[in-house]
Design a protein that fits this description.
Radius of gyration: 23 Å
Largest sheet: 8 strands, antiparallel
Shape: flat
Helix content: 25-40%
Number of domains: 1
Number of helices: 8
Distance between the termini: 27 Å
Order of helices and strands: EEEEHHHHEEEEEHEHHEHEEE
Number of strands: 14
């Protein structure tokens, strides 16, 4: 796979209409917000989940594109499988004397075994070599710091969410039916953001990419997942979510040619009319200042 030779920084702009982009389980699954400003929030974990789901759907069965953190997965079993493929018996003494004369903890890798297990996990799982992973549990494949990092997404303007009462014309048990004399109705609640345009930032480090094996091909797949991550992950709770802009700053070197914050400041999303309540993407103008770009910086809009 071709190595990554350039640093990348990027801005993601996506919106939600009449949906809950990321519920907070500590607040009855209400949309996440900044309590001081009222801006909406979407966690980096939520965005990574959508990337993982897209990869699972589109790259399934391809070597190197398995997903480590997936629904109902047992992570220690995946690590045990990796050590088994490496023919490392974690219940026997280490094969290499340099790794110790005896196994300190049965079922747990030590010494160079950890590095070998970590390398195979990176090679096998796309999300590990992309985002990193903590694999020091159970069999112990160490820790991986991923070359791709995402921030929380924050809405451009404060958002207003509303709770809605909903009715289901069915109950779950005979007891409930008897209590209602056969009316069989269940009341529930649903929360939605009327409209919000969210902005997240991301970073790609070629230095960390070398350590995990994250390649230029992986980067193409990652950017493709950003474009389609909401299209293949629909849910009634999330309403209408759309990726609007993917602004990528490609550096001409591995170290980079400008600070990320200076480049991010060139991307603006402004309300067309501050007096009007924004209810659609057309109520915003998105501009990218390309004048006097630092030498070696290339700007790309991958979402059109």
């Amino acid at each position: 796979m071709p190595e990554l030779k350039n640093r990348y920084d990027f801005v993601l702009l996506f919106d939600v209409q009449d949906g809950n982009p990321n519920g907070d389980p500590d607040a009855g699954n209400l949309p996440r917000t900044d309590p001081e400003t009222g801006h909406g929030l979407v966690t980096d974990v939520c965005l990574k989940r959508k990337v993982r789901n897209f990869i699972s759907l589109t790259e399934e069965g391809k070597p190197g594109f398995d997903i480590f953190v997936k629904e109902k997965a047992i992570l220690n079993q995946a690590m045990e499988s990796a050590f088994s493929k490496l023919k490392i018996d974690l219940n026997e003494k280490p094969a290499d004397a340099k790794d110790g004369k005896k196994r300190d903890s049965p079922g747990r890798a030590q010494g160079a075994e950890v590095e070998r297990g970590r390398a195979l996990m990176c090679e096998t799982f796309f999300d590990i070599r992309t985002f990193g992973a903590v694999m020091s549990t159970g069999p112990n494949a160490g820790q991986v710091r991923g070359p791709v990092q995402l921030t929380f997404a924050r809405s451009v303007l404060p958002v207003v969410f509303q709770e809605h009462a909903i009715t289901r014309v069915a109950v779950t048990s005979d007891v409930e039916s008897e209590k209602q004399s056969g009316e069989n109705r269940t009341m529930g609640r649903k929360s939605t953001v009327h409209y919000g345009l969210y902005r997240a930032h991301g970073f790609v480090s070629p230095h960390l990419a070398k350590r995990t094996g994250f390649s230029a091909v992986d980067l193409e797949v990652l950017f493709k997942s950003f474009r389609h991550m909401f299209e293949l992950d629909r849910s009634a709770a999330r309403g209408l979510m759309s990726m609007r802009k993917i602004i990528v700053f490609k550096h001409g070197s591995e170290l980079g040619n400008a600070p990320a914050h200076a480049l991010f400041g060139r991307v603006r999303a402004d309300a067309v009319s501050p007096e009007k309540t924004a209810r659609a993407f057309t109520d915003y103008t998105v501009t990218v200042d390309t004048a006097k770009l630092p030498e070696g910086i290339e700007v790309m809009d991958l979402a059109g």
